[in-house]
Amino acid sequence: MSDAAKALSVSDLNKHARQALERDLGEVWVEGELSNVSKPASGHIYFTLKDDRAQVRCALFRQRARFVAAPLRDGDQVKLRGRVSLFEPRGDYQLIAEAVQAAGLGELLAAFERLKAQLEAEGVFANARPLPYPPRKLLILSSATGAAIRDVLAVLKARWPLADVTLIPVPVQGAEAAPAMIAALGLLNRQARLDPARDAILITRGGGSLEDLWAFNNEHLARAIFHSRLPVMSAVGHEVDTTLADYAADLRAPTPSAAAERLVPDGQALVQALARHEARLARAMQARLERDSQRLDTLRARLRHPGERLAQQRRHVDTLAQRLHRAARLALTQQQHRVAQLCRRMESQDMARLHQGEQARLTQLSRRLEGAMARGLHDHRARLSSAARELNAISPLAVLGRGYAIAQDEAGQVVRRAKDVTPGQALSLRLGEGRLSVEVKRRYQK
């Protein structure tokens, strides 16, 4: 009953199951075939991912679905990155997809995972230095003609026109991209020794396929970012894209525009906030002046000559002394009355009669206790005799005492049927008193 009292509710059970799945499995890559693809008006995508032996229900929510380039169709072979979870209201086990891509990129992904594990073991992903906010001189490594640099510059101009930005044009795709970015990082770090105002680097490019972004998965580029004296922010691709450069950088932004928003404050918002604070300060100062003026008027009205205040306090002390004297006399009178009353009550009591009454009561209670003990002892003896009779009635020895016997073979097993023995077999008979060793001469089935 104690275990049943601790039973979980169904909602608690599903909650614990969801937490265990999300905690123990974390993020996984899964490959399979799409089926039952559903795209309701909410913008979310629901589908089943299956292979020839199993299937799992999946959900791709709207904010992630908009980054999937190709439409999802039944029969497509895909790889998706997601986390295992459980939909608590129905207890449905499901996979929450974070990114979906067509299958066939297995070698690149395997190489990416190998490099990621190797660099993580080396400590290349341990950077977490804070970037200056806002940076005095921001150095941007990106393509001079790409959409990413246009987005970054537009956001910086709108939010913080005072930003001092230097663009270092480098290729961001192809075989020459990684060496060019490594060389640029080395040059910028050397120049930073001569110009301490250069205090932050942004590496960025727009979205693309895994092959387009592969330059940012170069292990030498990741090491160069890790060893950079200047803090580095990485903003490569869309929100779902993750590269080794992102892991090696001190800070990652999901998109180029988001990187610009994180690097500098919103100037217009600061101006508006400053105006609000200025108005609040003016109101607070005016209110403080008014309160202090009123308080000064009140204090001026309350100000009196010290002699008048002393006379008032002297009168108050005299009043208190009179009240104390009256209270002391009243308390003394009350205590005297109480003492006299108690004395009269004690004189009126007959102590001998009280003692005799208590002695009689004690004698009566002693007799009642002895009677109760005798009755209890008699009841327990009767119950013990009854239990002994019942035990003797069901005892096998009592049955043997009425002339019955128990037959046992050489192994001590009780013989219940004649066919279980053979002629000439030795048996032991247990009687009500003692045992007999006998030999079987003949068997009778009835």
Topology of this protein?
Layout: H1 2-5, H2 10-25, E1 27-38, E2 45-50, E3 55-60, H3 62-65, E4 77-87, E5 92-102, H4 106-122, E6 137-142, H5 147-159, E7 165-169, H6 177-194, E8 198-205, H7 219-227, E9 232-236, H8 244-248, E10 251-252, H9 256-263, H10 267-302, H11 306-348, H12 351-394, H13 396-401, E11 406-408, E12 426-430, E13 435-439
Parallel strand pairs: 3-5, 6-7, 6-8, 8-9, 9-10
Antiparallel strand pairs: 1-2, 1-4, 2-3, 4-5, 11-12, 12-13
Helix pairs in contact: 5-9, 6-7
Question: Your description of this structure?
Answer:
Helix 5 packs parallel to helix 9 (256-263) and helix 6 runs parallel beside helix 7 (219-227). The protein folds into four domains: 4-104, OB fold (Dihydrolipoamide Acetyltransferase, E2P) (Beta Barrel), CATH 2.40.50.140; 118-265, Rossmann fold; 267-298; 400-439, no CATH class. The protein has helices at residues 2-5, 10-25, 62-65, 106-122, 147-159, 177-194, 219-227, 244-248, 256-263, 267-302, 306-348, 351-394, 396-401; strands spanning 27-38, 45-50, 55-60, 77-87, 92-102, 137-142, 165-169, 198-205, 232-236, 251-252, 406-408, 426-430, 435-439. It is flat and about 115 Å long. It is α/β, with parallel strands linked by helices and 446 residues long. Strand 4 and strand 5 (92-102) form a beta hairpin. The chain is built from 13 helices and 13 strands. Helices cover 50% and strands 19% of the residues. The model has no long low-confidence stretch (mean pLDDT 86).
